[in-house]
Amino acid sequence: MPTEISPQDGLPRCPWPGDDPLYRHYHDTEWGRPVTSDTRLFEKICLEGFQSGLSWITILRKRDRFREVFHGFDIAKVAAMTEADIERLLLDAGIIRHRGKITAAINNARRTLEIQQEFGSLAAYIWQFEPQSGHRADDYSWSALSAVAQTDASRALSKDLRKRGFNFVGPTTCYAFMQSMGMVNDHIETCFCRPEVEAARAALPRPVK
After folding, report:
1. Contact at 8 Å (CB) between 84 and 78?
2. From the candidates 26, 30, 130, 196, which is the catalytic residue?
3. CATH assignment of 21-203, given 3.40.50.300, 3.30.230.70, 1.10.340.30, 3.40.800.20?
4. 83 has catalytic annotation
5. Which of 38, 43, 119, 154 could in theory staple to 174 by disulfide, Cβ–Cβ 3.0 to 4.6 A?
């Protein structure tokens, strides 16, 4: 896979952000960087669910509004949202107006509270699914961050989340989540972010129960 060289800064990158400044900023500063904050992990789970069937840049452009209407993805506050909130959000053009996905975000917040009770944190629960050695998905296209992609680890995470009552957490969605939150480092070998992400992952104390 050829590296994308930016004419603006000359840095070699994964090709998928193209020349969109917002997408490049996300790629450079966030994607693949390890996350242990429960709030940020919950946000990523929710937004990956909203992304299902859509492009990630669509979600990224609406993320600020998602944060506003979902209380900064404060888990307890989202868990307390009601049917009236769902009806209100279905009228909000600033987000993805999909009843199933909105309902899933609220349901998943409630299930996350249960995980926190059991494991102490969402992070401790999530990081236990980290594969022993990083590897890329079974069927993954680097030309578009939208190909069907899943691994044994993402299938295991998906299966356990669904057993716990989560929705919109299929194995492909879970793999995208794992990429985003740094459980795997899928920057291409020549991308300038890859060694930075690898160093961050190496230095990270894994959260435990």
Report:
1. no
2. 26
3. 1.10.340.30
4. no
5. 154
The one catalytic residue in 56, 125, 127, 175 is: 56
pLDDT of residue 129: 97
How many whole angstroms separate alpha carbon 135 and alpha carbon 143? 18
Scanning the structure block, which residue is given the tokens 């793999």?
A: 175
At 28-50, the pLDDT tens digits run 999 999 999 999 999 999 999 99
Judge contact between 188 and 1, C-beta under 8 A.
yes
Our answer to whether residue 48 is catalytic in this structure is yes
Helix ranges (H only) for 120-191 are 122-127, 152-163, 171-180
Query: 3-class DSSP state for residue 65?
Result: helix
Options 4, 31, 43, 48, the catalytic residue: 48
pTM: 0.91
| Distance (Å, whole) CA 114 – CA 108 | 10
